[in-house]
């Protein structure tokens, strides 16, 4: 391509990207910078309640230093990491296998099966929360009635577990609140991530699989030595996507736990804690500090995932 034809092309490309950068500026950079600035001012309530508090026009790091001694903040941060890591470790392998199953399915059935797997990801989180509230309800929930109660009854009849109530209180027992939230996330995102993997599998040349088959590689070996190496960028993207969703998931947890963190804050996520702090306790500056405190951490995690993926590609 000559320089005379490249210049109009670059100009047209710049104009096509212009709406994206405008939206990025309006809906990400400006709110982010406003949140950073807001987190550096004291809440009016703190100024009124303390004579030693800084004035409303003075910059302060008090909102961030208070987080160091805030037990609920560390609890919410821990729960968010547990939810995010568990989602990644469960969803990625399931989606990887589902994508291969979809690729091997009949071509006429594949669009229908793909759409069925995507429905949970396309459903609004509030609706999903209501549906899972019906699933995890203690006495009349679908999960207890159809699966848990019959299995526990059989185990008790054989004497493998102690006799007692067969009901599992998913939304009240601290030991089961986080598994219930993880199950909700797995059900919602597995099919969506499987679509990412399916698109990546379709881009792998068929000759690579044929060569591996001629070398005597079975389905598992072809999956490991052909599919997995070429899907590493898709896997990295999906892991980042799921981690960001873990730090941004609000509607599902809010619907499941009724606007709280559950018993003993077992289901308190960071975004829920920021919401309670800002809108229920009327401390917007503290809520902004909670939100901004994880931005550097997320940047480090995303960089580590991308750096690890690119380093393996260079080594390969």
What sort of overall outline do the alpha carbons produce when their principal axes are compared?
Answer: flat
Distance between the first and last residues' Cα: 32 Å
One letter per element, helices H and strands E, the order comes to HHHHHHHHHHHHHHH
Oligomer: single chain
Uncertain stretches of 5 or more adjacent residues: 47-53
Q: Count the E strands.
A: 0
Q: Kindly state the percentage of residues in helix.
A: over 70%
Strand content: under 5%
Instruction: Give the radius of gyration.
Output: 25 Å
For the record, the count of structural domains works out to 1
The overall pLDDT, averaged over residues, is 81
The CATH superfamily turns out to be MetI-like
- What does the main sheet amount to? none
Count of DSSP H/I helices: 15
CATH class: Mainly Alpha
What class, by secondary structure content?
mainly alpha
Summarize the structure in words.
By secondary structure, the chain is mainly alpha-helical. The chain has one domain: Orthogonal Bundle (MetI-like fold). The protein is 77% helix and 0% strand. The radius of gyration is 25 Å and the shape is flat.
At a glance:
The protein has helices spanning 3-39, 44-49, 62-68, 71-104, 110-122, 125-136, 142-157, 174-203, 206-214, 219-230, 232-248, 251-257, 270-280, 284-293, 295-315. With 316 residues, it is mainly alpha-helical.
């Amino acid at each position: 391509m000559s320089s005379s034809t490249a210049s109009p092309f670059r100009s047209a490309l710049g104009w096509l990207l212009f709406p994206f950068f405008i939206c990025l500026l309006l809906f990400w950079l400006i709110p982010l910078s406003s949140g950073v600035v807001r987190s550096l001012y004291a809440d009016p309530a703190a100024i009124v309640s303390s004579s030693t508090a800084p004035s409303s026009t003075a910059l302060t790091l008090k909102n961030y230093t208070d987080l160091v001694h805030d037990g609920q903040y560390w609890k919410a941060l821990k729960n968010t990491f547990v939810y995010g890591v568990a989602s990644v470790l469960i969803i990625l392998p399931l989606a990887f296998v589902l994508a291969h199953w979809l690729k091997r399915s009949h071509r006429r059935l594949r669009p229908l099966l793909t759409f069925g797997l995507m429905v949970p990801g396309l459903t609004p989180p509030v609706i999903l929360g209501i549906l899972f509230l019906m699933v995890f309800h203690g006495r009349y929930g679908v999960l207890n009635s159809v699966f848990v109660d019959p299995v526990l009854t059989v185990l008790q009849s054989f004497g493998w577990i102690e006799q007692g109530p067969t009901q599992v209180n998913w939304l009240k027992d601290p030991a089961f609140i986080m598994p219930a939230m993880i199950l909700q996330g797995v059900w919602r995102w597995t099919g969506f991530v499987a679509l990412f993997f399916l698109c990546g599998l379709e881009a792998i040349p068929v000759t690579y699989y044929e060569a591996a088959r001629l070398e005597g590689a079975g389905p598992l070996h072809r999956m490991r030595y052909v599919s997995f190496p070429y899907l590493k960028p898709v896997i990295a993207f999906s892991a980042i996507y799921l981690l960001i969703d873990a730090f941004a998931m609000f509607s599902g947890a809010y619907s499941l736990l009724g606007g709280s963190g559950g018993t003993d804050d077992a289901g308190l996520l960071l975004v829920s804690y920021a919401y309670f702090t800002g809108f229920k306790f009327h401390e917007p500056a503290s809520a902004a500090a909670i939100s901004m405190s994880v931005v550097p951490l997320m940047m480090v995690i995303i960089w580590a995932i991308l750096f690890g993926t690119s380093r393996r590609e260079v080594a390969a």
